[in-house]
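hey so i finally got around to running the thing on that chain from the lab meeting. sorry it took forever, my laptop kept dying and i had to restart like 3 times. anyway pasting the input first so we r on the same page abt which one it is
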Amino acid sequence: METTIALRLPRDAASVPLVRQMLEVTLRSLGVEQQVRDDIELMLTEACSNVIKHADPSDCYRVSAALFDHMCIIKVVDAGGGFDPRAIVEPEPIADHGRGLQIMRALADDIRFTNRAQKGAVVCLEKRLRYVPGAAGPHLMSMPA
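ok and heres what got predicted. didnt touch it at all, straight out
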């Protein structure tokens, strides 16, 4: 079984808590461990915040989260011109801002950046799921569709 949440959101800071809460409720209902939920919440927050702060002007962006078996795959898609993650200068350790990519890289099991000509950028974050003992998630997510 696969569970997918897909949202088209206004490019506004108020959209970040909405998508974060929707994913949190789903993960908690399946019995995903608190630490994994916290990591996913922070990765998602950073990816969405980067779109709101840095992407080219547009009215909206898209977020999708696919859950299957022991994996969560999040995609955040904007309508901007994209960016080269290798060209981002690492912030000083005491910097107040600019550590979003570092945070996402530290928490994700895999991260990919894709730039699509005139169609925006995609940030894809993958995180392995761990469940609390007795959780329904492993049983539900391993059922055939």
